[in-house]
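Write out the 3D structure for:
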Amino acid sequence: MKIHSLGRDRWRDTERCRKTGGETCDRAKLWIAAGVLAAVIASHHNAFAGTVNVKGSEAGSFVTANFSYDGISPALLAIYAGRDNVGGPFNGQEISEYSFTTGSCTAPDGSAGFPFVLVQADEVDTYHQGQLVSTAKGQADGKGCAGNTGITGAVLTLSVSYGTGKLANASGSITETFTCPTLAFNATSGIFGACQVTRTGSVTD
């Protein structure tokens, strides 16, 4: 009831300000300033404390990079943005290399595809409160399926190496589940695509 009453008071002050000005206008301006301040605080909230079961998502694009972990195949560079309950909104970059294996698999759209496993991946997520640096290595940490329709799916589990700022004491792991349509491909120069990703895992501060 008190919340509803405050909302009505703010609306009345705003309406009176439009009609009469004066002291009512000053109160209306205070309501607006308080609302803006609350929104800023909410968007820059402190990092979590304790242990959090990660829930989040991200979206971005990837392209073949002029980089390789093993000197055999080129890696992929991904650039993305998202939000999770570790630190709120974030931007990030990931470099990852995969290797195709034998056998068959099913892509996210149900098409047949070609299986691959992770060589290595490194990721940096930048939040308002600091950065998380994570790494993954080998097929135990990552694998996927490149569908013959151009849709690729993958699951990657990254271990948090360290953090900065208010995330300096962070540890744990983040599992990312990818669905990525290929947008352009050239057998000589590489690949370009987009990705939608969900995040789970457990991180301790």
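The CA atoms of residues 46 and 71 lie 41 Å apart.
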